[in-house]
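Appendix C. Worked example: methylmalonate-semialdehyde dehydrogenase (CoA acylating)
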Amino acid sequence: MKTVSHWINGSLSTDKAAQVGEIFNPATGKISGTVNFADLATVNKAVQVASSAFDSWRHSSLTKRTQVLFAFRELVNKNKEKIAELITAEHGKVLSDAQGEVTRGLEVVEFACGIPHLLKGGFSEEVSTGVDVYSIRQPLGPVAIISPFNFPAMVPMWFFPIAIACGNTVIIKPSEKDPSAIMFIANLLKEAGLPDGVFNVVHGDKVAVDALLTHPGIKSISFVGSTSIAKYVYENGTKAGKRVQALGGAKNHMIVLPDADLELAADAAINAGFGSAGERCMAISAIIAVEPIADKLIEKIKIRALKIKTGDGTTNADMGPLVTKVHRDKVASYINAGEKDGATVVVDGRNVEMAGDGFWLGPTLFDHVKPDMSIYLEEIFGPVLSVIRVKTYDEALKLVNDHQYGNGTAIFTNDGGAARRFQNEVEVGMVGINVPIPVPMAYFSFGGWKNSLFGDSHAHGTEGVHFFTRGKVVTSRWLDPSHGGINLGFPQNT
Ligand code: NAD
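Step 2, the predicted output written as structure tokens:
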């Protein structure tokens, strides 16, 4: 049984923990280790280390920072499989999904390697006689990143490569459910030449989060998790005077118009609904079928869903278990509620037969879901797809826009005009056109609207650089003796 401890000042903390959490292998249901929870003293120590490291890291040259990031990129690439194995062992997702997550994280590292270009300021010459104005962006100081269980490598990588590239120091509080991947990454950063204290990890729960939210040494909070905690983090972080970006939950809709390619739409629904067992903030969980295609579409999704092989993520399964027993039972309780509320269970994931005590649930497909049912209103975060039937595009659009979440959405159609209208009218932060999971590339920014994001700054891309720096504008006048200024004793040009 392993013990996962904090990473402070470039090494593992040996402090004894007053409280620990259990880590499970979701495929076996067995405990594989424990994770130390940070108390106030541990968080204070991490902040103090990050503050001291900031004094020199902020003055490191852009060349030095990019050298570290390029070396880190190579190391992550080389160790992609090892990181994926750690993710699968604690999260449960299949290895190919885990590797995909590392690849998406690497794209942000590659983006951050371009920091010399990204930090270039503006310059206006001669705004008044002899006066120039220019803007620069400077780091904030120690910044905190609080991440969820569902992408234990990728979500931290949305933030820390850019934060570090901008000259900040970092404290990460990963999910206590799958804390090992980020520890491996911490070692790689050290191997890449990152000075000790620039990147730190404290584990734990609310105690550690609250300590980070209120510590005056922490300058910003980047949070990703469920909406209720995102709101809490946003309100308390901003109250303590910090800048906060808090990404919350989701209920992503996929609209299928009557002219869509139904084979493509059914494939997309399967991948986006059941990939990573639906534990993705960009998973599709509601399909809005615009009649008359619902019967045909549901049949195609059903055939595919019945073929999905649920199993241990280290085998050749399509879909792994859910992350914990509590979460598995919560998702199953939503299926019970949907059935009780009158939705039709087309494919029932509760029937999946698996050996052992893993946290299993197969894919579930609901038809005839109504907008007032809890399976539609709330985020389930599991392998459950709900189909709602409507008669028109306008009805479909209204459903998406009336929903409390606005993270991602997709439309499937062959009509360019309809797609263009949708991208303009839909109240959601990330939109796919015949693309079910429209996760922006690292050089664009990731974030939703409404209850899917608190704050005004999305993750990575130029918004990420903006978030991790403060702007400064310098207005400067240098007196030039050759142009009739004060004679400072320099030789005159004649
Ligand atoms: P969660 O909200 O339970 O936990 C997120 C983080 O908050 C963890 O580090 C956790 O330890 C901490 N936390 C939990 N309870 C807390 C409390 N009471 N006070 C302070 N901190 C607390 O989320 P999760 O279950 O780990 O992740 C799943 C959620 O994350 C889903 O809602 C999903 O939609 C969301 N998510 C959103 C995005 C996005 O980009 N919008 C991306 C990934 C996941």
